[in-house]
Amino acid sequence: MKKYIYIALISLAALVACSKETLHPVPSNAISDTQIFSSVESARTALNAGIQYICYGSSFPYYLVMSDTMGEDALVTAGTYGIDNYERHIHAYTYSQVPEDDPWWFGYANYIWLYDYKGIDVANNIIALMEEAPDEPGKEDLLAQAHALRGYLFLRLASIFSSTYTLNPDAPCIVLRTEPADGSSEHLPRATVKDTYTQLLKDLDYGRQHCSPANTDFFTPKACALYMARAYLYMADWANAKKYAEEAASNVFDGSNLMSQSEWQAGFMDPNVEWLMYFAFNPTTSNYYVSIPSFYYLAKTAYSVDEKGKANPNDIEYLDTAAEGDYFEEPLYGYSNIRFTDRFRNYFEDSDCRKMFPFYFYEEDGWFTSKFSHRTMVGDADYPLARTAEAYLIKAECEAQNGGNAALAKSVLNALQEARGATPTEATLENIYMERRKELYGEGFRLHDIKRLHQPLDRSKDPEHWADVKTLPADSPRFMLPIPQNEMLYNKALTAADQNEYWRK
Length: 505
Hints:
The chain is mainly alpha-helical. Helices cover 37% and strands 7% of the residues.
């Protein structure tokens, strides 16, 4: 099937259609595959469109925020304490997602699936069509970027639409599309978890070996190594997880390659030495009100906070200085509907730079976090997709496992803790797991850790949690999202039995 790339949409979103049912007549201003993939320079435009799908506004924020709100530390405001939730993330928090996409706020698994596969199809087209292009400078990096993009998105989809590798590697995972979309490639069964990880690791390794290290707003060898370490961690392959974590961190675990405390507390919006890969948001590419900062950030400081941390929501005033009556610094607040429990906040020492919970409006509604900031407008903030701190945590965990090096695990863990202003601890697995929660909160890791560690969900100790789902057993089928109804309907290789367990009819 001949596909076309629409000029007006290349830089933002729709590059090629993923289903024949959604194809439209070719417009007069379209250019063909032959033209777009005739040179590295023109094909790079396609890659740019593919990279956009990583942080696309209709998928990425839901994927990322979902992992935390489906855990025990974060929650979504009930909408009765000063700020409405606008139905954003409610159905992840309450475990009430559905396979249908209408209404969208119940079924955003559909959008994560749709746009991640659009990005995968961009990668597939580059890999398939650029192989025949003339060799010229940049071709190797272009192909490597496409492989890395595909592997990264496969990992992201596998982590939420299937069970864990250690639970059952032969369980059904995702649809493993590795060819440009056409009539036959649409009808593929779900691959196994094992086969999916084999493919995504192969893709990421290709990127690790061939990507240019020059630009961290694209895939780099170190970023690919970290994604491989993450995948191997999910597989409980400690030797390989450690190997690639060491590569991602240049085998430096003394704290010198971590961001400073002041950089941490500035709010995550500008690249620094620790960011191995980031997405470059600016006023043109910003997701605005569906950006990550929009869901978390109200203001770094409230001037009228009592001794318990309570601020008055009626005191938000858009003035310039405290002297003029502005009780909140920079109140570019977006939705601001994600909060954190008091118990989680109390895990942090006052000296810890990561204790970014400046105030709350009502204690029943949880604490705001200022970990993610804006520059000049809502959503104007770069976002880290790979940080060296994660390599520290993977290295420490692998060394703490049986057969590892306990002293080295402690050294690595302590280097991270000291860099953040926290008191060093022993490197028990429980302490390392807690350090992951403290370092990575808000970055989309908590649900994946609950799944891979075969932990239950327990929100019963936190009175802020208002969702009916307070507890779930380890390995609950509800930790997986449903396969979207459109995939179930149009993919003739799937039957009702291929739906994830909790949503089968």
